[in-house]
Amino acid sequence: MQNLRTVITFLLAIVAPLVIITIILRETPADHTLLNNLRETYEIEHKPGVDHSKHEVLQQEFTNPHLITAACLSCHTERGQEVMKNSHWKWEREAYIPGKGVTYLGKKTLINNFCTGISSNEGTCNRCHIGYGWQDKTFDFTNEYNIDCLICHDNTGTYEKARGAAGYPPMGQDAPDYKNILAHVGRPKRNNCGYCHFHGGGGNNVKHGDLELALLTADRTIDVHMGVDGMNMACVTCHTAENHQIQGRYYGVSSSNTQRVTCEQCHTSVPHTNSKINEHTIKVACQTCHIPVYAKVNATKTAWDWSTATQRKDGLPYELLDTSGNETYTSIKGDFHWERMVKPEYIWFNGTADHHMITEKINLDNLPLNINTLNGEYRDRNSKIYPTKIHRGKQPYDPVYLTIIQAKLWDKEVNKGALWVDLDWEAALRTGMEYLDLPYSGTYDFIPTQLFLPVNHMVSLASESVSCSECHTRKDGRLNDLRDFYMPGRDYHVGIDTFGKLMIIFSFIGVLIHGTIRVFASRKNQIK
Amino acid sequence: MKNTKKVYVYKGFERFWHWTQALLIMFLALTGFEIHSSYSLFGFETAVNLHNKAAWGFIVLIVFAIFWHITTGEWKQYIPTTKNLKAQIEFYITGIFRNAPHPTKKTLLSKLNPLQRLVYLGLKILIIPVMVVSGLLFMFFRYPQSGMIKTVNIENLEIVALIHTLGAFLLITFLIVHLYLITTGHTITSNLKAMITGWEELEEDTEETKQEN
Fold this sequence. Notes:
The structure holds 2 protein chains of 2 kinds.
Chain A: H1 2-25, H2 33-43, H3 65-75, H4 79-83, H5 87-90, E1 93-97, E2 101-105, H6 122-125, H7 150-153, H8 178-183, H9 190-197, H10 235-238, E3 241-242, E4 245-246, H11 264-267, H12 275-280, H13 286-290, E5 300-305, E6 319-321, E7 327-330, E8 334-339, E9 345-349, E10 353-355, E11 369-370, E12 372-374, E13 384-398, E14 403-404, H14 419-422, H15 425-435, E15 445-454, H16 494-527
Parallel strand pairs in A: 5-13, 11-15
Antiparallel strand pairs in A: 1-2, 3-4, 5-8, 6-7, 7-8, 9-13, 10-12, 13-14, 13-15
Chain B: E1 4-8, H1 12-35, H2 44-72, H3 85-93, H4 114-140, H5 158-181, H6 190-197, E2 199-203, H7 207-210
């Protein structure tokens, strides 16, 4: 009887708690069903249903690129009309912006703080337009033979656009091998998109920081989706298109929360096994934890100071390079700052944006000027925290009219007012504003500006995602600047914490004193 | 020496409840203040997971404890009284140093002195419920979000978090004082022994002690 009791007590007191603790603490095995299904779906290679080398219309000796487009459209009869509705063609989109109403904004009209804007510089900037010949305001957006089909659909990787030719390919002897190219047209590959999107801002990785040439060959540690040793996904795998309406947004030029590509469209909004982490997805974008750093291979430009441009050394323009070969100063563009393995900055963002237009007045009390404003705050139900590249610029403005000034930067010839040719700010700004039919007072200065670019690519391995304590920490956490909400581990009430600590200290001192007196008192009592 | 008799004061479940609760509160404090970034020990993520699991354990224990208190009638032990309250306070301030006898006699039907009654009742009906409710809100509060029922959204976690933190400080203070006061029994270890074994030497005669002070 006594033995049985001991056994039962032992079981209840020692074994049962251990069993319960083990059950509670066991790790839920990760569920990879969804991921495996996705892998299966995207592992299947796309096989084209057409062999373009067998089309007679493509067997001609082409010298005029417009005729290539005509040949394409002779079979794909409606695609030209589709493309001409697309923002890759129009470089503007219809969007409603509160306070501005319905707007038509895009690269065509907006300014930025890299090369500042295309107006009066179309000859070079519009090399990246999916058309032929947009060199000034006279470009015909309604002529479908102006479309450049090949820049997106050449699968040989040999087609290119000439420098300073407003979107035309090299002509004559330097012309691409059209016969070979036309035999291999198809769905856009990475280097089709990358031809322009990797080079935004005038060089590899300059603008975005998460889109660059390294993505053509990178492994999974650089980009878990595009890694050539992994899923090896193309841009268009996520940026799907229907009737040439391509999904995806760049908020330097976009304004509304539509046509976006999201992680959730494949991964769902609750992909984790831990519900605490799933709960985060209500307020934290996937990218925030899963892109701990960007510009993982090559550096990206994080600051651009135009005010130092036009300096000469011994009467000649010059440039300075850093140890990695990045330009840190050029006479034509000013000073640059480059960074690699950059920790993003974090902002609240609900998918809508506003843009500072060249006609808008600058508020000098509120500098730096936000070239684009990504809307959002904690209390906004649609806002999440997003990782962002903030590009800080210093660019010309008109201190009399209080507007940004667009300079003419490029021309083929000297003395046409182009800054990059003549190194003369005065002439460049006057010519640029004349081209836009906008007033210019004749005086100029430089103001600090910032451009917000959400970071979406170069998703890291799950094992490298941002850990809890990188945000949930008292000092210098990643979310240190987002102060419109309470975050456990970072925030506390000074009063309550001080009160609590004092309470603990005083109670401890209290019992210590009380205990000491008791010890002495009992000794005295014993002596008695 | 007065006559004493060994009495089975703390029943099996009562002791199990007491010690499990003690361990859980200490463990919750340990992990909780790590989540508060007061120190780092397990790492934030592990601390959160352990804290949440221990919290569920605590809630289960509380459910059983409530059931036990009601079915055994032990809840009556916590009915507050002012009788002997002043004497009890005076005992801790002065009497204890003069080796004066305890003003409240411990019996099976009244295990707690009036100070204990007040403090434990406060714990049971105020601090612990506040900690449980604020803790559950911590787990289940809804951020401002779209799509679902908006009326249950909490705009800000701050008030919940601050109440939970304040409660935690109070519990730690209680723990310190409580750990000390268990040494103030008939001997330094008699209270501890009683809570471990259940048995305690209690005075037999009622009338003698009432006349003290």
